[in-house]
Amino acid sequence: xxxxxxxxxxxxxxxxxxxxxxxxxxxxxxxxxxxxxxxxxxxxxxxxxxxxxxxxxxxxxxxxxxxxxxxxxxxxxxxxxxxxxxxxxxxxxxxxxxxxxxxxxxxxxxxxxxxxxxxxxxxxxxxxxxxxxxxxxxxxxxxxxxxxxxxxxxxxxxxxxxxxxxxxxxxxxxxxxxxxxxxxxxxxxxxxxxxxxxxxxxxxxxxxxxxxxxxxxxxxxxxxxxxxxxxxxxxxxxxxxxxxxxxxxxxxxxxxxxxxxxxxxxxxxxxxxxxxxxxxxxxxxxxxx
Length: 289
Description:
The chain is an all-beta fold and 289 residues long. The protein contains 1 helix and 22 strands.
């Protein structure tokens, strides 16, 4: 697996275009062999899989999360989406994470990747997805877009799935209005106001919350703090991303906050016209104490 490396000052990003257009590593370099991970690094085995699902971060295109039983209602049309994720009985997270992406541009601090989908397998519509990565001494900006290559309206969405290191003191701060309760298969049920137990507006520790839920009413800003490491990450997203999936699995040393363009299972309520493009940016800015 050939990695594409970007570096700006102490910050280093390794991209894995052949493994789902994913980020393999985002790290702050220190003196000697010291380093601090801003994202959970991918293992060699994860990269060798040729997919991004166990990477540091991978793209969600053309939809985020699960489509119940692969049946998607788009207007009066019912669309079938085949299973695509090992061990999950519903198609999940689109095509991009499992495909090789083409490098269409790069320099020491930036890169552009592209994936073109022919619609013959997986998602039944043609599209062109792009990712841009721009690194400077303060952080990383990831741009995403999806262009509809069909001559008709289609459903389409975007998202990013970063994995952040998590210890007992890791804190998340963000403002959210509502959340979807889920069933045992993590499919959305009822939409309710955010309960006090999941209110991150004043900041709270994430370990042990056991979340895997989609929130809405997000203002596009979130802060992660790692007090033991003296590091903070400010995450910001443009208007295309106003939903946030928070995933805190039990017993793991990572958690995810995923900026996405639509609610879980609701890509059928989106509409991208023929030849049009949906695009946005997500920034990861680091600071230290």
